[in-house]
Design brief:
single chain; about 220 residues; alpha+beta; four-stranded antiparallel β-sheet; 7 helices; about 50% helix; disordered C terminus
């Protein structure tokens, strides 16, 4: 559960063995899920206090013994006491809306979930860590630096600031363009990793067919 009321809802159905009421983030409590005094299951509950959680909201996770009957009963108790079912991807949506991750990182979550290979999963994890976002932010900052240099030279000529020459502007923009080209080329590689390569094996039936591929790797 995630949200302002998650701990309040949990307190209505969870009886910890340790009676300490203070809730600390990144802790686990052992106890029972109960319904009108009847024990439903013996569980462990993980606590995550805002803003240090996946959604930046108060969060708790109930770890039960599993099984369809038990899980369904615990879910019904949560809903009965005020929780609502999350939509697909809602936790990641909340993390994005609350500013914990950006759009690129949010999209990488679905890539990790649906990864068909170890390579694709690793690529998704890198995106989730913010590698692409940092590259884009750096390019954006480079462009802003060019704009700031030009505006300062125009708006404040009376101050002793170094004048930005045309050659300096061209050099900085060329560097930005080169970085953008590298990102553009990486898209094709990422698409191959994600979608694979479509291959057609053509030839007469029951005839031996030889598959050859050519791969060019450009090192930078």
């Amino acid at each position: 559960m995630s949200g302002k009321e998650s701990f309040n809802i949990l307190n209505k159905i969870f009886q910890p063995k340790n009676t300490t009421k203070q809730i600390k983030g990144y802790t686990i409590k052992y106890g029972n899920i109960v319904d009108n005094g009847e024990i439903i299951d013996e569980v462990l509950v993980s606590y995550f206090k805002e803003p240090k959680s996946y959604t930046t909201e108060n969060m708790c996770e109930i770890n039960s013994h599993g099984g369809n009957i038990i899980v369904k009963k615990i879910l019904e108790l949560c809903l009965k006491n005020g929780a609502t079912l999350a939509e697909p991807g809602e936790f990641t949506k909340r993390a994005f809306l609350n500013g914990r991750i950006d759009l690129v990182q949010a999209e990488s979550v679905i890539d990790i979930i649906h990864a068909k290979s170890e390579k694709e999963a690793k690529t998704g994890i890198k995106q989730l860590e913010g590698i692409l976002s940092k590259q884009i932010a750096q390019i954006k900052q480079n462009i802003l630096d060019v704009m700031v240099g030009i505006e300062v030279a125009i708006d404040y000529p009376e101050y002793d600031v170094e004048e930005v020459t045309t050659s300096q502007i061209e050099e900085m923009l060329n560097q930005v363009e080169e970085k953008l080209h590298i990102l553009e080329k990486s898209f094709d590689n990422g698409k191959i990793i994600k979608e694979g390569i479509k291959t057609a094996i053509i030839g007469k039936p029951n005839a031996r067919k030889i598959i050859t591929t050519k791969c060019h790797i450009k090192r930078r």
